[in-house]
Please model this.
Amino acid sequence: MPTIKVDGQELEVKEGVNLLDALLSAGIDVPYFCWHPSMGSIGACRQCAVIQYADEEDTRGRIVMSCMTPVTDNAVFSVDAENAATFRDSVIENLMLNHPHDCPVCEEGGECHLQDMTVMAGHRNRQYEGKKTTYPNQYLGPFIGHEMNRCISCYRCVRYYRDYSGGHDLSAFASRSRVFFGRAADGVLENEFAGNLVEVCPTGVFTDKTLSKHYTRKWDLQSAPTVCQGCSLGCNTYTSERYGEIRRVHNRYHQDVNGYFLCDRGRFGAGFVASSKRIPQSGIRNDQGLYDAVSLDTAITKIQAIISEGTKVVGIGSARASLESNFALRQFVGQENFCNGMTEIDQEMHGIIIDVLQSKLTTPSLTEVEEYDAVLILGEDVTNHAPRLALSVRQATRNLASEMAGNTQIPQWHDAAVRVLAQNHRSPLIVVTPTEDRLDEVASSSMRLMPRDIAELGYALAEEIAGNTTSSTPDVEAIARTLLEAKKPLVISGSSSQSPDILKAAVNLSLALKDRNDRAGIFLCANECNSVGVAMIDNERSISELLSTSPSVVVVLENDLSIRLGQQFSSSISSVNNLIAIDHLDNSTTSASSVVLPAATFAEAEGTLVNSEGRAQRSMAVYKAQDEIKAGYHLIDALAGNERSSTEVRSELSEQIPALAGILKAAPESDFRFEGAKFPRMTHRSSGRTAMRADISVHEPKQPVDEESALSFSMEGNQQQAPASLRAYTWSPGWNSNQSVHKFQSEVGGEYVGGDSGYLLFRESVDIEPFSKSTQAYSALIPRYHIFGSDELSAESEELSTLIPRPYLRINNTTAKNLKVEQGDGLMCTINNGNLQFAVIVDEAIPDNTFVYPIIPETRGMNGISSTDFSRVDDWVQDMDPLSPKTITTDRSS
Amino acid sequence: MNSVRNNLASTLTDQEVSEIEAEISHLPDRRSAAIDALKIVQKHRGWISDGSLSAIARLLGMSDEELDGIATFYTLIYRKPVGEKVILCCDSVSCWIMGGDKITNKIKSHLNVELGETTEDSKYTLLPVTCLGDCDHAPAMMVGDELHHDLTESNIEEILK
Amino acid sequence: MSETPLTRNIAPGKPPTDLAAYDANGGYQAVRDTIGKVDPDGVLDIIKDSNLRGRGGAGYPTGMKWSFVPKPRPDEGHRYLVANADEMEPGTFKDRLLMEFDPHQLIEGMILSSYTISADRGYIFIRDEYHTAIKRLNDAIKEAENKNYLGDRILGTDFSFHLHVHVSAGRYICGEETALLNSLEGKRANPRAKPPFPQVSGLWGRPTIVNNVETLCNIPHIVTHGADWYQSLGSGNDAGTKLYGASGRVKKPGCWELPIGTSIREILENHAGGMLDGYELKGLLPGGASTDFLVAEPLDLPMDYESIMQAGSRMGTGTMIILDDKTCPVGMIANLMKFFARESCGFCTPCREGLPWVKQILDGIEAGTGRLGDMDILERQSQFIGAISNTHCAHAPGAIEPLSSGLKYFHEDFIAHIENKTCPYTGGAT
Ligand SMILES: Cc1cc2nc3c(=O)[nH]c(=O)nc-3n(C[C@H](O)[C@H](O)[C@H](O)COP(=O)(O)O)c2cc1C
Ligand code: SF4
Ligand code: FES
Model:
């Protein structure tokens, strides 16, 4: 470790980092804009200037940009030197020449990096008296606002959007003092990770429209550390609210999971909490088939009566419900009467995923994925099914660039130089999927195969790598060679293929690879936010199996059975006398129930989830649920006549299911305190709590008490000392923006001081055998995921729902001819007693008589439709592109 | 960056495509030909419309944004229509010393345009340009492809007849 | 009369040289004698010994620059040589002459240079406005290809070199060598941070040398006549000849090849014919727009890198811009700042934001609306923008040189503008 001297103080710093990184890691404040811990340095803003001296004797030194300066042993620097400070002051002064003084109406106000840096650099007095440059703003879609006048031209947005996340529709235009950052024309930003612009931009150019719509200053938000419910990766988020309404979701740094970035489903998908389909109150179905709103007590009494009359009570859990709720239900109905609420295929796939997590095979974290120098994606739609993973895979393709840079003595953080050196050279990425994939553009090769053939390819690869065959196709040989030549090969697959066979093939392939190279890894994407967790609770019997035991009462927890059972939904539940549904939003299952109980969402209830890599993570309630809405486990406990805190539920859970005992380590329990105090959800500067009701009464009402966790609905307590899993927001003196996160990291980009949140459950490794090839029956209908629309809950978020594709069927020419349709025509089928119309997209990459359809709200229930069910729509009018139904509006108010 | 783009995506002519492909042939990738391609199309069409830009972007496998970010950087790529001839009037220091401003003002009044504008008859567009490397004969300007120097207020009218 | 190797084929009224004319005067002899016959390292030694310094402005020793190119490894890909023919520095008009009237000299220089650094591809990056030069270079390249001076396996040796003319789409910053590389790659011409230097990671990430046209034109002569001969051409510390020029209110503005180190007085009085009648010399920018003013006294300075540096300026491109006593220095500096602000690439803060502010203030002072406080701002801004390493590339520090020296030398002029609320001059802009 090199030792450097900074303002007379000796510092041991990490080898290979730049000086800015080292200084921030050492707790020394240096202002900066264009540098970003994940994106490296380019030296554009010149804000991070310090003085470098030739040696200890040198008294003059010269200005260097700390972000562009390598740390070398015995180097001498000064941050405090007057000429450095004057220079930094001038940088801010010049950046502010054209910056509008619109802080009072700016969404970034109070958590603005530019404000922080202005104060830090000591710039006070304006001398400039000229006109300010102004720019037009653009419509960038439902998520992101654009206010170009606030731009300070740090280039972070384009570097993030284009270089880091692979977007194409954002650029720097023009030059000199007229650089414009935006699209070529108004339109929805196309990249799935565009939302991070909101956090990457150090000013208020790119803002969160969902927040702007009902804007609250950062210090008036009440927030909690939450875990994204959007997919199986478990990205860490801060969810913030005011007046019981969610205002925004922000990235919550986790070294191993999401790092600094989220996907747009995660960031903009929490709006479902306030959906018009939200169930606010319990309901009992009356004789007319309509629901009477009743008190929770009445509903509970009613259900208890139903149960006491019934003969057999069974419970169906859910992969989108917490471990606590699933476990409470299993306790309530008994183990043999419980099913985890997944389809048979999902259960089989998640069984395989758990086998892998338990095995000696290595499942990397998302950050570790970035270290693999050859990646094979076998049938998984990473971008749409496990989006944040796609961002990691993109970075993995840059390993070759890093290697080239290393050989040329270019430091890894020297972003522009590494990119110039590497040009189009990328580490191998092989994408094998049924339809085109966003990652194709960074792939060394892409193959379009149907699930059956993907599985075959996987098995063949396993044989080839194990050396069990002499007659492989050139494709197989080439892929095998790539994987074998890599220092760290990674196989990615997952449940979006809906093919257990593909997963098995991926496992066999990984086992063979692991034998040859111990550093080989496998990442299997689970289906939903708690699929792995619920499969660990119980993966014994399927929904149909359970329903075939002729139960009289079925309690369904946060699960729309119509999605799992598809065409069989009505018939399967017809014999059930009483369906009891516990859920957040209205759906086919709640509509078919005798009694409905209103379940709290993640925003209102604490719960533990297990992600695809087997990491148990606690998501905390953001605010106290309204009225009679309660956490799933509390509702079930109420049915059982039980009253337990979530801590108590977990403690029983960890005793009864030893594999899940580790969840207690995911976060401290409710009795945890720092110097006797709980941890605040509100900032110490929150004017909200005391002022919120001032117009009604100056007497501040007592804040609700949180009995479930060590967090309080208050600004009292000590947020700075909170363990990572209990930190409700990031703030540090002088650092009001999200950039303050480095104050809580052991080093820039490292783990949190005191450890990251969550706990990896699988720590021992069991040997597993390769699977034997099964003969899965493949449907002619191939579902495809869409980042916006395929996830049940986020699809109900207002802004996000506008980006959901319209129903389409992708078929080839032959199939189209047989059905007497062509591109732009319509096909239809009958689904759940209604007609569903699809736009036809002709795609020659698809085999005969195969239908690719999107998983979107309209097609939930497609399960069971067959290829013969489609017929031509005669009076079809296609009014929009089914894949981008985005309506462009230039109305700035929308 | 107007919200309404004249996006009747035009198609490139065979001639344009083959000239662009010829440039690509000695470059390591298609995108590297971005500036050459813009110049080729501009040579044929006078300027780069949004439609031309999209067509070039497609040919090179880039997005409109990627190409337009490049196009708008360079002063000699015209993203607005220009007259039959562009007058590049040197406004750098040597010409300035030799009375270049007077010459520019003379051109402006003679053609009744300001810098950046096109004459009503679409014959000329007047733009400032960086030192034309003709400082020993200052003031200088280019009209179309032709260099004119030792300009005086009286020979301007002759040149721009 | 001293030797003028660079312009030996160029004379007033003489047509530009084609291959035949070039050949007739010993052209391509150096190529024939060197390629495949002399070891590239041997050529490199001659260039190093010659003490040739780059003529593009910074004066970096050419041999040293070349020596940082890593030794070639088999099958590693292309390596590039780029001639910087962007010549947009205001007041500079020397490369144009070389390219228009003796294009083969540049081509021969590039063949020899690329042989020395094992480059197999070359580009001449030339500004669009140089139509005549572009045409003549392209014609000359064809001629040279026909003779196999260019192309595959040159003259039957293992050495191949392909040369293309790339015509720029404008912007002064393209002359900055790393911005130039980005532009050649078809990107926005933002400069790159150094290190890594182009020698290591240049065009498309490959080892690349960028040299000024005039620098490259020296190569055939050095290779032919040797380092000692070349050293003997110059006076003082520097070697060779230099194209010097003068523009402004002098009797005979122009460009002349003279021994490097010729005095300013000699250039001004003997070659440029002295000031126009009725005008006095007030100051001069010795080497283009981005050099510090020198005022009347140092006329006896030799125009070489060291002497001009010691006098507080830079030799730059060696083409002087003369400020006379009837032209307003404030107006001249305002003109220069307008230029530099407009040509900023927009990448780094001091340049992008700082120059337009400076320009605004100068315009105000020139228009008579300036205030005394403006002087402090100008002073502070020139410190802020002016030092190398304050900005991402050398554009802004170069831009500030005339301002900071002007503030020093023409202080009274500034004050007079401010106090009298008008420009006291009638020359120049008015
Ligand atoms: C803003 C700027 C503009 C430049 N323009 C030119 C130019 O037009 N021609 C040139 O030869 N060098 C120019 N240079 C210098 C080049 O960066 C580079 O130093 C030169 O081409 C190297 O050639 P040499 O070593 O032969 O002098 C410029 C530098 C800067 C900072
Ligand atoms: S100094 Fe000017 S030209 Fe150079 S990088 Fe900075 S903004 Fe661009
Ligand atoms: S953070 Fe170092 S130059 Fe911008």
In short: The pocket of iron/sulfur cluster (ligand 2) is lined by residues C 173, 191, 344-348, 351-352, 391-393, 395-396 (CB under 6 Å). Chain A has a mean pLDDT of 95. Residues 565 and 571 of chain A are 10 Å apart (CA to CA).
